[in-house]
Structure formats: C-alpha cells, structure tokens
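Final report, Chapter 2: Outcomes

The project's central promise was a pipeline that accepts a single protein chain and returns its three-dimensional structure in a standardized token representation, suitable for archiving and comparison. That pipeline is now operational. To close this chapter, we reproduce one record exactly as it appears in the project archive, with the input sequence first and the structure output second.
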Amino acid sequence: MEREVSFSNMNTFEIFRDNKKRDFSENDISEHYLKLSVRCAVLKWLSLTILAVFVIFSVKNHGDELSFDSIRYIVKYMKDEPSSLVSSGDSISYDYDSKNEIYLIGDDFAVVGSDGIRIFEFSGKVLFSDDFNYKSPVAVPFGNQLIVYDIGGKEVRFYNSFSETYRLTLESTVYNVSVSDKETFMVQTSSEGYRSGFQIYTKNFQPFFKTNYGELTLQSSSLSPDGKYAVSACFSTTGNVVSYLKVYGTDIDTVFAECEITGEYPVGVEFLDNENFLLFTDKGIRKYNVSLENSFSHYYWNDSPRQYKINNGKIIITYGTSLLNESTRIEIIDLNGEKSAFEIPCTARDILIDGDFIHVLCNGEINTYNSDFELIHSYSISKNFSHMVKIEYGKYLLSSLDSVEMYIFDNKSEEN
C-alpha cells in the first residue's frame, strides 16, 4: 500500500496567491538607470585617474627601466605556450656553427656563435636574432641580459630576450669582460701606449675607474660581486717568469694590495665572493682574500689539466690518464682546500655538480655519481653533446653545435 501524504493546512502558500504585483512607473525606471549610469561614469573616471597617477609615478621613478621590451616581457608571460622541452630527450635544433655555445638569458636561452646570436623560448620559438662576424665570440650573463664580445674585437654588445639594448664601441682591443651583481662591469683591453689595462663602467655605461699597465702585460682580471674590488693578474715579458697580483678598491681608485709569485705564469683570475678569489696559473690554483693572504695552494696532478672550472662552490679539475685520454681523473676541491679525486673509464666532456650529485657528460651517455663517487645512474643520449647547463635542480640542457636536448634527473627513482 502506498503511503499517502497530505497537507491539511495550505495557509503557508497563501502569500504567493495574495501577493500583489508591484507597479513600477516609467519615471522610476528612468531615474534608476540614470543614477546607475552616473555611478558607472564616476567609477570609470576614477579608475582612469588612478591609472594616470600610476603611469606618471612609474615613469618618474622607473623611467629608465620602462621600455617597449618591458611590455613584451609582460605579454610573453601572459601567453600559455607549450614547451618543446618537457622531458628527457626533447630537443630543439638550430644552424650548425663550430663556435656555438649555450647561455641562459632570463627564462630563455641563447645560442652564440661566430655568425651571430639566436634567442629561443623553451617552446622552440625564436624570440630574436642578430648577425655578426666574430672569430672568438664570448658571452657573459649580466642580470637578465647577455653581454657578447669578440676576443680581439673592439665592441661589446648587450642583449635582452628581444633586442640589442646597447653597443659599447672602443678604440682599443677587448680581451675580457667581468661583471658584478651591482650592474657594473669591467672591460679588459689593450690600450694605445700601454700593453693592456681595464676600465669599469656603471649600468648606464659611464666609465668611472680605469688603469693601464706599462711594463707588465695584463693576462686576466675580475670584478667582485659587490663591485668594490677589482683584481688583476699580470706577468712580465722580461727576465724570470713572475706573476703579479694587484687588488684595487674601485671606490678609492688606488691599489689596495699587491704581491709577486715567482716561477708561475698567470692563466686566469676569478672572484668567488666579495672577499675571496682564485688565481689559476700554469702550475696550480691559489686562493687569496682581497688583502692577498693566501689560504691554500693546489698543484696540478700532471702538467696537462684538460679542464678546470668553478661549479656549485667547488673547483673541478680533469686530466687524461692515458696517452689516448680514454679515461679521466677528476679532482674536486672545496673552498677550504680539501681535495678528493676519482677516475672514470670514459672521456669527460663536461662535469656539473648539483646538490649531492656529480653529473659527468661522456660520449653518448651521462653518468651520475653520489658524494662517495659511486656510480648510481647512467643515461644514454642520442649524440655527443659537449656541455651541460643547469636550468634548475635536476633539470639540465645538453648542448651541441647544432641542437639542445633536455635531460631531467630524478634522484628519487632509478629510471629517468
């Protein structure tokens, strides 16, 4: 039997039957929309006034930073374009050049070669290209820009992701460029009447510090991250082999400290932080502070180190261990001078330390070692890449002369 449901009292619904329709006159409607339109007009002009005040304030206080490229950056990040480089093995190709090198520029990457620069999004889209003819092109990251110059040339170019922002033309020959974190940069050149020298510029490309060398030849120079110190490594072309180190205070325009190292030829110098730097010579590596106090010296394992670089707060040196160099000795030195070494049965083309892992790029594979130098992972690659560039932790670009390929290392699993 179905259950019957009845309502004995329907008074609750009487209000719907008894409710009278409201009577809106045409005057009431007109007055309502008139008030609404006035309010909208007031809000519109108020919004425009606030926007105008914001634009005036921005131009007045940040006018030197606002440009058409700034707007292009905003539009770029509003787009949702899929990346071509998502997983290991994804690649982007470009024209072959024997001098091609890869550099990160903001959230994009640049290919710099002897015939020009090409800037790509990770989607593979070319954002900008510029042609030049350089015999020995070099690029230096400079904030969200890239400085490009030709060793032996007479110009220094500045690029962002969309354009060449500035070109510094010099009368003397450019040999090196060093940058600080304070938007100052240093250009090492040869000068008329002198063997060599360097000049430091502000972010507005105005020179504010300059020094030249007469009897000495400047081999290398570096600017501290805070821009307060510059160090030079020189040598003399007469008499015995002697390296000369000079530290300058850029704000006092004078030599802060200097010393000589007999029997060693300077190769390069590079700041580690605001107070300490490394000197590379033909015999080994020395660490100094800006007062030229030597905290450690390390001499090479043999006379022919294949590569040395600073990576992740450590010094990496590689050597060939046989006549054909089919195996590699790798030395890793921390900034306290503590050294560890191990050998691998392949030719190491590049090495990158990321956290507790050491990634070694060999012919046709990437081998990953832990901090105890135990091989924990090997990954086959499609071609012989020459360099690795870190995008973020566990995510790297492998570069060759005509393409880049993504490599993603997941240390939580055995398969990548």
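Archive annotation: Residues 1-20 have pLDDT under 50 and may be disordered.
This record, like all others produced under the grant, will remain available to the consortium after the project formally closes.
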